[in-house]
Amino acid sequence: MRLKGKVAVITGAARGIGAAFALGFAKEGAKIVIADLSDGTDTVKKVEKAGSEALFIRTDVSKESECIGMAEKGFERFGRIDILINNAAVFADLVLRPFTEISSEEFKRVVEINTSGLFHCTKAVFPYMKAKGGKIINMSSASILEGVPGMPHYVASKGAVMAMTRSMARELGDFKINVNTIAPGFTHSEGGDKFDRSKALPLPPLEELQLQHRCIKRAAVPEDLVGTAIFLATDDSAFVTGQMIVHDGGLSFH
């Protein structure tokens, strides 16, 4: 159990990739704080079934005050915060459409959640990490390397995630806090599959497009990402910071 005694805050862990992280980390001994706008009761039950503990805290990551309150409650329950996975993001509800049809309100909402939310959560957990160190894992997207059309706000927000990772790695290194990014390609999940059915552009399914160019020609699922996240959360990656691991089956090289 590589994470025994650790506490991980995982945003957007009520379903999909975040829920897979919660279960995978629980199996490695971590206690889990589930921060999500959606009901995280099912994920709590799965974590408990895996033999660990979990706390669901309803959190809107676009609101700094809610992120601060979430970190306080998590620390109050478990007495420490060692790991933060900034996974919450707007994706499933987006519709691929020409950029001229995307309103500034929608653009701002995506950035507020996908980029500002990461900033808020990192600030919120920092007081509980700064004395003893910690691991911060930010979820970006391989779309920043692919130039995916129809969602410039999403791609821009995820590009900002990687830029912020580099800046935070420089600033937080003195506190023994590692900051890294995982950039998945299109991943089959509740959110991913919903997104792929929502298009206002004449494009084939994203999975079909990506399979043509991947080195590993199979569908990606949330569980594929768990091992990479565990590596970045353990001492195995103690000397790795400011990096992005592209996790798309060899679709993108950088």
SSE order, as H and E? EHEHEHEHEHHEHHHE
Number of domains: 1
Here the CATH topology equals: Rossmann fold
Overall CATH class? Alpha Beta
- Distance N to C terminus: 33 Å
- Proportion of strand residues: 5-15%
Say how many strands there are.
7
Q: Could you report the average pLDDT, rounded to the nearest whole number? A: 92
Tell me about the biggest sheet?
A: 7 strands, parallel
The tally of helices reads 9
C-alpha geometry: globular
CATH superfamily: NAD(P)-binding Rossmann-like Domain
Uncertain runs: none
Helicity, as a percent range = 40-55%
Q: Which strand order do you get reading across the main beta sheet?
A: 3-2-1-4-5-6-7
> Which CATH architecture would you pick?
3-Layer(aba) Sandwich
Structural description of this entry:
The structure is a single chain. The chain has 254 residues and is an alpha/beta fold. It has a single domain (7-247), classed as NAD(P)-binding Rossmann-like Domain (Rossmann fold, 3-Layer(aba) Sandwich), CATH 3.40.50.720. The chain has 9 helices and 7 strands; from the N terminus they run E-H-E-H-E-H-E-H-E-H-H-E-H-H-H-E. It has helices at residues 16-27, 41-49, 64-78, 104-129, 143-146, 152-172, 190-196, 206-211, 226-233, and strands spanning 7-11, 31-36, 54-58, 83-86, 134-139, 177-184, 244-247. It has a 7-stranded parallel β-sheet, with helices on both faces. Strand 4 (83-86), helix 4 (104-129) and strand 5 form a beta-alpha-beta unit. Helix 1 (16-27) packs parallel to helix 2 (41-49), helix 1 crosses helix 9 and helix 3 (64-78) packs parallel to helix 4 (104-129). The relative contact order is 0.15.
